[in-house]
Amino acid sequence: MTNHPAALHVRPAAPDDLPAIIALDREVTGLEKPEYWRDLYSRYGSRDDDRRCFLVAAIGGQVEGFVIGEVRAWEFGSPPCGWIFAIQVRPRCRLGGVGTRLFEAVRDRFRAAGVDRLRTMLARDNNVILSFFRSQGMMAGPFLELEMELDAQSGR
Amino acid sequence: MKLQKATTFALIAVLELAADPQAQPSVLEIAEKHGISAHHLAKVMRDLGRAGIVDAVRGVGGGYRFIGNPKRLTLMDIIDLFEPARPGRAANPGPEAAQALQRVLDEIDEHAAATFRSITLSTMLKLMRAPARA
Fold first, then answer.
1. Is there a domain that residue A43 lies in?
2. Does A1 have pLDDT greater than 50?
3. Has residue A125 been placed in a domain?
4. Is residue B102 part of a domain?
5. Residues 112 to 131 of B: which have CB under 8 A from any A CB?
6. Which of A82, A123, B79, B125 is spaced 20 to 30 Å from A47 by Cα?
7. Is A142 within the bounds of a domain?
8. More confident residue, A51 or B37
9. Does some domain include residue B12?
10. Taking CB atoms and an 8 Å cut-off, how many pairs form between chains A and B?
11. How far apart (Å, rounded) are the C-alpha atoms in residues B63 and A71?
């Protein structure tokens, strides 16, 4: 946990941040996905505006967290709303305000983009991130996610 | 997930105490405020004390105070103290209708459990202070 929240700086991600972002994701998930993060950066980081953003939180120049989100409209009939689809904070920096600063930054951008609702989706067993979003005031939304296995045998 | 009376009492009492960690209300005061059985609540408070969530303060003006970590303690942590262990998703040997119904009930339970696991006392205290949504 950091004891220096004042030194925390939230800013748009830059190409030079990618190695740190890939390493942070690897530290948290145990998987290295460089192509995935480069692709996300090309789609969300290189065209940073209020409707799509890729932000990093840095302490003393080191990336300790990041968030990615965008405004999406009319998916499943939903009016435009801001989606957060990735947020990550280095484990040793958690409960130090890094995630909250990232959340607030993306929320402010979405507000500036004219949307009044924030949405996300994550695994039911992801207690850490679920608890984080709950702590920010997020509640269950009006959608239910459904899925099925595509069984070649039954032809379904 | 249907909660037993003891579980609901425990959640109410813990939230009441966590909202003001300096206060040390008696069982009777908590019970009267929420219109619940003091006798039943007394037993619940002893269980919460054994779990290290509340502490009994003896003597004049004594009562209970919250000693847990509100940022770590979730609603599910408290529920788990009072609800019997939930069976896993073992194959139900009953008729097909019962099996199908059980699958739906399991799905509902999994959503409920995930919700309870994701809400800390700290989040609940914020929710208690926030105006209700329309």
1. yes
2. no
3. yes
4. no
5. 114-115, 117-120, 122-123, 126, 130
6. A123
7. no
8. B37
9. yes
10. 30
11. 51
Is the separation of the CB atoms in A3 and A18 below 8 Å? no
Please say if the pLDDT value at position B71 is more than 80.
Answer: yes
Identify the domain containing residue B13 by its residue range.
Answer: 5-86+120-129
**Buried/exposed code over B74-91 (b: 16+ C-beta within 10 A; e: otherwise):** bbbbbbbbbeeeeeeeee
Q: Does A84 score more than 60 pLDDT? A: yes
Among the ranges given (A134-138, B40-44, B113-117, B127-131), the one the predictor scored with the smallest mean pLDDT: B127-131
**Per the domain annotation, does B92 fall within a domain?**
no
Give domain status of residue B52, yes or no.
yes
Q: Searching chain B, which residue's CA lies closest to the CA of residue A144? A: B111
Domain total in chain B: 1
State the residue range of the domain holding A127.
Answer: 5-135
Q: Which chain B residues have a beta carbon less than 8 Å from that of A139?
A: 133
A-chain residue closest to B75, CA distance: A131
- Whether A147 maps to a domain, the answer reads no
Residues of A in contact with B126 (CB under 8 A): 135, 137
CB within 8 Å: B71 and A95: yes
Give tens-digit pLDDT for A46-72. Answer: 776 778 999 999 998 899 999 999 999
Per DSSP bridges, beta strands B63-66 and A118-120 are: unpaired
Alpha-carbon gap: B3 to the closest alpha carbon of chain A (Å) = 20
In terms of Cα–Cα distance, which of B130, B78, B129, B120 is closest to A132? B120
- Average pLDDT score over chain A: 89
Task: Please indicate if any CB of chain B lies within 8 Å of the CB of A146.
Answer: no
CATH number for position A111 = 3.40.630.30
Kind and range of the H or E element at A86? strand A81-89
Q: Which amino acid is at B65?
A: R
pLDDT-derived band at B89, boundaries 50, 70, 90: low
Q: What span, in angstroms and rounded, lies between the C-alpha atoms of B3 and A45?
A: 46
The CATH number assigned to the domain holding B57 equals 1.10.10.10
CB contact under 8 A, B115 and A95: no
Identify the closest residue of chain B to A128 by CA–CA distance. B118
Residue of A nearest to B128 (CA): A137
- Assess whether pLDDT exceeds 70 at residue A155: no
Does residue A4 have a pLDDT over 60? no
Average pLDDT score over residue span A147-153: 83
